[in-house]
Specification:
binds pyridoxal-5'-phosphate, alpha/beta, 2 domains, 7 helices, Aspartate Aminotransferase, domain 2, five-stranded parallel sheet
Length: 223
C-alpha cells in the first residue's frame, strides 16, 4: 500500500550518498597500509591498551563532557590554550557541529572536488549546497576555491595534507586563501594527516587560527 502521508525527511537528506570507505586491497601488495579508516598495522599501542582496560572500572559513570583531562593534556602537548579547544567523537563530529551551527537552508560550503565526504554529508543534512572546486592534477588551489565562493558561502573546507590526493597547501597558500575570504566565512583546515608531512613549506595553521576569529583547525587521534 502506498501511504501518501509517510514521514518525509527534510529536503536534502535523501540526496546524501552514503559514505563508502576507500579500497583496502591493492593488486600485488600483501598488506597495504590504509590510513583512512583508522587502521594501524601495529595494533593499538601498549599504553592505549592499558588505558582502555583501566577505563572499564568507570564506564558506569557519564564521561566528562568537557574532556578536562584530555583538554589539558592536548593543550600542553601542542602548545595551545585549553579554552580554544573543542573535542568531538572524531573530526567528523566537529564538522557536523560546525555545519549544524552555521548553515541555514540555501547557504553553501565549498571544498575540493576530492574533499573529504564528511564535509558534504552533514552540509546536505542541513539543507546547504555543496560547491566543489576543481582539483586538476589532484591539487586544490586558493584560486579554485575562491572561484566557488559566493555570498551564500558560510564555510570553506580544506584538507591539508589531503586524502585521497596526497597533495597539500603551503602555509603561504593558506594565508592567501584566508586573506581573500570575508571575515564571516569560516575557513576549516583539516589537518588529519599533519603527522605525515615532511615538506618544509607546509605548516600547521594553529598560529593563523590564534590570530583570527574565522579559522578552525582540526586534528585527530585516528591516523
Ligand atoms: C581528510 C580527512 N579528514 C578527517 C578524517 C576523519 O577523521 P576522524 O577519524 O577524526 O573523524 C578522515 C578520515 O578518513 C580524512 O581522510
Amino acid at each position: 500500500m502506498t501511504d501518501a502521508k509517510a514521514p518525509a525527511p527534510k529536503p536534502g537528506i535523501l540526496d546524501i550518498a552514503p559514505y563508502v570507505g576507500g579500497k583496502s586491497n591493492i593488486d600485488g601488495v600483501a598488506q597495504p597500509m590504509k590510513l583512512s579508516s583508522n587502521e594501524n598495522m601495529l595494533g593499538a599501542g601498549e599504553k592505549a591498551r592499558a588505558a582502555y582496560a583501566n577505563a572499564v572500572s568507570g564506564i558506569h559513570i557519564y564521561p566528562d563532557g568537557r574532556a578536562a583531562k584530555l583538554r589539558t593534556a592536548v593543550a600542553d602537548k601542542m602548545g595551545l590554550e585549553p579554552e580554544r579547544l573543542i573535542f568531538g567523537n572524531g573530526s567528523d563530529e566537529v564538522f557536523a557541529l560546525l555545519n549544524q551551527t552555521y548553515l541555514t537552508p540555501g547557504d553553501n560550503i565549498v571544498s575540493g572536488q576530492y574533499g573529504f565526504l564528511a564535509y558534504r554529508i552533514s552540509a546536505k543534512a542541513n539543507q546547504a549546497e555543496v560547491k566543489l572546486a576543481p582539483e586538476p592534477d589532484y591539487k586544490l588551489t586558493p584560486e579554485a576555491i575562491l572561484g566557488q565562493v559566493d555570498d551564500r558561502t558560510r564555510i570553506v573546507y580544506v584538507s591539508s595534507p589531503s586524502n585521497p590526493t596526497g597533495s597539500y597547501n603551503t602555509a603561504e597558500e593558506i594565508r592567501q586563501l584566508h586573506a581573500a575570504l570575508a571575515p564571516d566565512v569560516i575557513l576549516v583546515i583539516d589537518e588529519a594527516y599533519a603527522e605525515y608531512v615532511t615538506e618544509p613549506d607546509w605548516q600547521s595553521s594553529f598560529d593563523l587560527a590564534r590570530d583570527s576569529d574565522n579559522i578552525v583547525v582540526t586534528r585527530t587521534f585516528s591516523k
